[in-house]
Amino acid sequence: MAKLKKQDIKVYKALQGELKRQQEGMELIASENYVSPAVLEALGSVFTNKYSEGLPGKRYYGGQKYTDVVESLAIERAKKLFGAEHANVQPLSGAPANMIAYSAVLSPGDTVLGMDLSHGGHLTHGHPVTLSAKIYRFVRYKTDASGLIDYDELEKMAISEKPKLMLAGFSAYTRQIDYKKFTDIAQKVGAITMFDIAHIAGLIAGKAIPNPVPYFDIVTTTTHKTLRGPRGGMIMCKEKYAQAIDKAVFPGFQGGPHMNNIAALAVALGEALKPAYKTYAKQIIKNAKVLEQELKKYGFKLMFGGTDNHMILADVFSSKGATGKETEKVLDEIGITINKNMIPDDPRKPMDPSGVRIGVPAITTRGMKEKEVRLIAGWINKAIENRENKKFLGELKKEVIKLCKKFPLPK
Ligand code: DSN
């Protein structure tokens, strides 16, 4: 960092501040992780200088000998890891990947069934504020009173709404989807199937949960959540949709791919193919289960009844008397980063909802296991219950820093 320090002290200082924040604090945002130094090296490499519109072997500009190598590696590794027939590694992130996938198979006005945001879905799955909802007709399904997807209801909806596309996937839903039931319904009504696996891609890659890729026509993902790669997106699909997806990425939606990200993605996918990654993915599930049990013990109300994946969604307002915003703030004060989150049909507003989402992929990367998760759950509970007591919070922060120093970022 010597050159950055000499040339731009303001950016350098912000970077050092962020490094310290990550080292001494604990990331429990379910969609975040810590990449390896090898991924960081590829990300900060000269590949960022290159324009590479097109695909390996079929580019619009010269000088592609090495970009072709890294993009081909990323594609082959993605296909191998997920058992995909086709992969496009150029989407810049998850929201563009979803928009691109819609545009590849839908015409304006077509109907899509997607999961409601407050029930765990994602903004890009048809929330009225998004561009996709202005172009397509989204109908949103919800979870039932038990917190699960009611497949009989979903089937009734599919029969009456006649969607062109049925979309599975979520950003705060914590239970396993029944891939077969979902795709059987789609088959009955002649809908194309799509799964946005952004949150659970790493759990699938590490074989900690079943792989949906063989079941679905199109699968989109980000690459930086449980998958532990650089920020970016990917679309995998059946061969039948390969050409439509590739064309929808470029020239349909994007310009030049970010080759430094793609090089870093190739490295991350290489890591995910190693045996140690399976151990990591399984540990995430174990850690999340312990978090679920501990928080239940402390009286937290968990949405959807608990978790089958890497995160929990808790209604802190009804169970602890603190809003999501207050909880996020008090945990920030002790160095634990989480995010406020809507709960199903939340009567409160998105900027100060009833819930919080807590995920364990990042702390699991640091090597924390069940014992540490028990400690953390206790701190979360104590911090919320003593949120007015600044002195007590200060003491808790010291405990958090001590634990973080024992479990450094990947080296
Ligand atoms: N922002 C991501 C998340 O936190 O789930 C999804 O877009």
From TrEMBL:
<dbReference type="GO" id="GO:0035999">
    <property type="term" value="P:tetrahydrofolate interconversion"/>
</dbReference>
<dbReference type="InterPro" id="IPR015422">
    <property type="entry name" value="PyrdxlP-dep_Trfase_small"/>
</dbReference>
<dbReference type="Pfam" id="PF00464">
    <property type="entry name" value="SHMT"/>
</dbReference>
<keyword id="KW-0663">Pyridoxal phosphate</keyword>
<feature type="binding site">
    <location>
        <position position="117"/>
    </location>
    <ligand>
        <name>(6S)-5,6,7,8-tetrahydrofolate</name>
    </ligand>
</feature>
<dbReference type="GO" id="GO:0005829">
    <property type="term" value="C:cytosol"/>
</dbReference>
<feature type="domain" description="Serine hydroxymethyltransferase-like">
    <location>
        <begin position="4"/>
        <end position="380"/>
    </location>
</feature>
<feature type="modified residue" description="N6-(pyridoxal phosphate)lysine">
    <location>
        <position position="225"/>
    </location>
</feature>
<keyword id="KW-0489">Methyltransferase</keyword>
<comment type="pathway">
    <text>One-carbon metabolism; tetrahydrofolate interconversion.</text>
</comment>
<keyword id="KW-0028">Amino-acid biosynthesis</keyword>
<dbReference type="GO" id="GO:0030170">
    <property type="term" value="F:pyridoxal phosphate binding"/>
</dbReference>
<dbReference type="GO" id="GO:0008168">
    <property type="term" value="F:methyltransferase activity"/>
</dbReference>
<keyword id="KW-0963">Cytoplasm</keyword>
<dbReference type="GO" id="GO:0004372">
    <property type="term" value="F:glycine hydroxymethyltransferase activity"/>
</dbReference>
<comment type="similarity">
    <text>Belongs to the SHMT family.</text>
</comment>
<comment type="subunit">
    <text>Homodimer.</text>
</comment>
<feature type="binding site">
    <location>
        <position position="239"/>
    </location>
    <ligand>
        <name>(6S)-5,6,7,8-tetrahydrofolate</name>
    </ligand>
</feature>
<dbReference type="InterPro" id="IPR015421">
    <property type="entry name" value="PyrdxlP-dep_Trfase_major"/>
</dbReference>
<dbReference type="InterPro" id="IPR039429">
    <property type="entry name" value="SHMT-like_dom"/>
</dbReference>
<dbReference type="GO" id="GO:0032259">
    <property type="term" value="P:methylation"/>
</dbReference>
<dbReference type="InterPro" id="IPR019798">
    <property type="entry name" value="Ser_HO-MeTrfase_PLP_BS"/>
</dbReference>
<dbReference type="InterPro" id="IPR015424">
    <property type="entry name" value="PyrdxlP-dep_Trfase"/>
</dbReference>
<dbReference type="InterPro" id="IPR049943">
    <property type="entry name" value="Ser_HO-MeTrfase-like"/>
</dbReference>
<dbReference type="GO" id="GO:0019264">
    <property type="term" value="P:glycine biosynthetic process from serine"/>
</dbReference>
<comment type="pathway">
    <text>Amino-acid biosynthesis; glycine biosynthesis; glycine from L-serine: step 1/1.</text>
</comment>
<keyword id="KW-0808">Transferase</keyword>
<protein>
    <recommendedName>
        <fullName>Serine hydroxymethyltransferase</fullName>
        <ecNumber>2.1.2.1</ecNumber>
    </recommendedName>
</protein>
<feature type="site" description="Plays an important role in substrate specificity">
    <location>
        <position position="224"/>
    </location>
</feature>
<feature type="binding site">
    <location>
        <begin position="121"/>
        <end position="123"/>
    </location>
    <ligand>
        <name>(6S)-5,6,7,8-tetrahydrofolate</name>
    </ligand>
</feature>
<dbReference type="InterPro" id="IPR001085">
    <property type="entry name" value="Ser_HO-MeTrfase"/>
</dbReference>
<keyword id="KW-0554">One-carbon metabolism</keyword>
<comment type="function">
    <text>Catalyzes the reversible interconversion of serine and glycine with tetrahydrofolate (THF) serving as the one-carbon carrier. This reaction serves as the major source of one-carbon groups required for the biosynthesis of purines, thymidylate, methionine, and other important biomolecules. Also exhibits THF-independent aldolase activity toward beta-hydroxyamino acids, producing glycine and aldehydes, via a retro-aldol mechanism.</text>
</comment>
